[in-house]
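Progress narrative, work stream C.
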Amino acid sequence: MSTPVSQDDKQAALARLNRFSQMADNAIVIPFTRFRIGLEPIIGLVPVLGDLAGLLMSCYVLLEAHRAGASPRVKQQMVRNMLIDFFGGLVPIVGDIFDFAWKANVRNTQLLREHLETELSVQQKPRFPWGQLLMIAGGLAVITALVVLFAL
């Protein structure tokens, strides 16, 4: 049985993944354009081995998602993105262009972020403020008793 993951651990995992995804997919700005590339598409320029290295790098995002308590559905979507990135990158020349555009790590980090935000909104339902209601009712009862007592 796995231990529950704290909110701080989930936030820390997202912060690590944001840094990793930035480095892997968006680290370098292409001058005079709005395009960014990272280390993974550059490594992917090496036929087959570069794409395999990129797949192994992407496994880090999947591992962090598992540690953060991602659902099996989210992990399946991540694996799908990783495989699309891997097999798309294997195609000569077109695959290298595909690697620059697909950005599987950024996609997977966003999937995890959306999952955790949904999970947080479901878990943190506002509770009825019974304590505050009782304090107000008690305060009104004391004030009413004092008014009645002094009115006599």
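Work stream C, second folded protein:
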Amino acid sequence: MEITRASEQHLNEILKLCRYCSQNMKRKDIDQWDDNYPNKEIFQEDINNHSLYIAVSEESEEIIGCVVLNNDQEPEYKVVEWLYEQGKIAIVHRLMVRPNYEGKGIARSLIEFVEKLAKDNGYTAIRLDVFSENTRAVNFYKKQGYRVSGKVNFRKGEFLCCEKIIP
């Protein structure tokens, strides 16, 4: 697997990946993503801002995962009592793995990639939010060393706000 920055040519495949992930979550009764979020415009902006990274299978050359890393904190984050306030804070958004590749370490590789990228770019901590009803994702982030610092509500319900200091 290779992780690289997404470009315009990847947009349609990223949208397909997002549909697969949304459908997979719905099958698991996780009502998190839909036609409103995330959408084409959001992914286009991620590509334009050079913040979207894709994991590409070396065998099939298909996009099997993606993640966004930037410093765009949601306004709702202001109410969270974050542990790490010093330095530059990076934010993870829209981590997804193609359902037939789940359990193969793709998400872990993507998180390790963005953590290294953040460290290399002078960030001191990483923040993210995770849908509280997506227990698999919640457990994944906790296993990767992310600490829950608070909760916020978005359109679909309660999200846990997590953070991790970059060593």
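The chain has four helices and seven strands. No further action is required on this item.
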